[in-house]
Amino acid sequence: MTSQPSSGLLSILIPNYNYGQYIAEAVESVFRQDYDSIELIIVDDGSTDNSVKAIHQIVKRPNKLSRIEVIEMPRNSGKLAAINVGIEYCRGEFCILLDADDKLTDSYASRCINALAKERETRANIGFIYTNCMLIGPGGDHVGQGKSTEFDPTLIERFSFIPEPAVVLMSAMLEAAPFDEGILKGTKHHKWRRIINNGWHGHHIPEPLFNYRMHDKNLSGIGTRVLDEIDGGHRGERLLSGYWPMQTR
To answer: What is the pTM of this model?
Structure first.
């Protein structure tokens, strides 16, 4: 980190690779948060599309954020490499890793940070809050709901069940970092497994508080599966742990 954590500050870190068509919506959802103390760190992981142009355009729009940093990596090195770089720029007490194709609801940060504070009044090992989500298609149309599982530390050895963009104590994130850049799939699972194995627990809010975009370039492959299922007539709620891979190189 470049300085001591700032009390109450939320660092939102967006790693991006070739999501130029979506990243403006992700950033706009950060601008709309009703939480007052936010900094935004965007790491472009050597994109070859219009991402860099789109990023520089969107961050010029009026906003109330305390700080915005844009880091451009010279070559594509993978999501965890981008996260490792971005964490070094974060100054917050809390952190959100927001995928560049997803969107937060306006009260996401405030709801999760308030829940984290409340849970930590009685359980000091609570380090993160995660929620259910609304599933949206490539164009932003609602296609269903995604459901996460109530927290159980033993499940992380068998399932990937905790989504980005959970709100995490920065101290818990830093203890687990740097992340293994050789992990190319199941990057979420790798990160959460490290955090949980360090003794941190989570708390689940069973409400859909962010938008998870389904498309054919989702790193986990979930988008293609879900959209194919919808085309086949299977709509409604999905248990996300059935779609996310565990860490693989």
So the answer is: 0.95
